[in-house]
């Protein structure tokens, strides 16, 4: 599988899963634009690691929750490169609160960064991909169809993201653009450490049929495949990377009962 | 308007606190600001002054005065350049 000569943009590519994706694409030969928001240092470090793999890297600061900043980012990409082959809509943020405590500000913040950003980025990216046959991959989570305490705003934003992924897949197909999503269960990153610390997610080693937790590279492997020509006939799908957690939920309930005597 | 007054206006708008009661000793916690208010205030100030406030620096701010002093330094440095 080669992504030689391709140019990729990874939103939130400076750390966590986005970083793993950026490095994976680079390891297959793609040049990568790393978008970041608050952590320039992390983005720069990722860019250095991409260059160490022999690919070109660029960092761009933009809050993807802000339409004007998305425009500035794509203006810059358009002016400097005049093209784009791969868009990974990975950046996410969210307000962790029970539904009854969700106010409009928290709702909009989460929806704008997690869902609306895909719409606005894909609209601009599709123009830069025209005639090149691009790939768009959005990063979702099991919260789009399962419910966890305080995850409502993010979960709903991910459901919207997955639905939009399907519409984009159909409407961009005539341009030869492939659009899919990858949804992960709990992945070992800083974001997860927060949820575990707050007691909202249990360390999930023991509930994953595959026997270990999902790591960022597991997600990156599937994303890289979806960006390859081998995945040409996969369109509008959400591929779940969870080590079997979601299909094993019922057997899990039995397991916990047994464990507790 | 001074840098301090501009920041005070931004913080007051985001936290819905009357700007006349924001002093250099005020804290985000005292203004009942949540983590989202804090990020939005940081981003709004960054955009107003075209500077960057790294999270590691922001975490060191004990009160509004520390926030203002940091921004004043950044603005002065920018003007020098
Ligand atoms: N971790 C998990 O357990 C898990 C599970 C399933 C799905 N996911 C999904 O995987 C993706 C990456 O998650 P992660 O765990 O790697 O997240 P993370 O460690 O919390 O990092 C978030 C990333 O998003 C960027 N970001 C946040 N707000 C942004 C904004 N407004 N504009 C631009 N960039 C922004 C951050 O950039 P800065 O650092 O520069 O601020 C950072 O790179 C997300 O879509 C998340 O929902 C994560």
Any overview of this molecule?
The complex is a heterodimer of chains A (about 260) and B (about 80). Helices cover about 45% and strands about 15% of the residues of chain A. Chain A is α/β, with parallel strands linked by helices and about 260 residues long. Chain A has a 7-stranded parallel beta sheet with strand order 3-2-1-4-5-6-7, with helices on both faces. In chain A, strand 4 (about 85-90), helix 4 (about 105-130) and strand 5 form a beta-alpha-beta unit. The model of chain A has no long low-confidence stretch (mean pLDDT about 95). Chain B has about 80 residues and is mainly alpha-helical. Chain B has one domain (about 5-80): ACP-like (Non-ribosomal Peptide Synthetase Peptidyl Carrier Protein, Chain A). Chain B has 4 helices and no strands. The longest helix of chain B has 17 residues, at about 65-80. NADP nicotinamide-adenine-dinucleotide phosphate binds near residues 141 and 186 of chain A.
Query: Average pLDDT across residues of chain A?
Result: 93
From the helix content, strand content and strand pairing of chain A, which structural class follows? alpha/beta
C-alpha Rg of chain B (nearest Å): 12 Å
Largest sheet of chain A at a glance? Answer: 7 strands, parallel
The poorly predicted ranges of chain A are none
E-strand count of chain B? 0
From the spread of the alpha carbons, the general shape of chain B counts as: globular
Question: Looking at the structure, what is the overall shape of chain A?
Answer: globular
Strand percentage of chain A lies at: 5-15%
- What is the CATH architecture descriptor of chain B? Orthogonal Bundle
Number of helical segments with 4 or more residues of chain B: 4
Topology pattern of chain B, helix = H, strand = E: HHHH
Please identify the top-level CATH class of chain B. Mainly Alpha
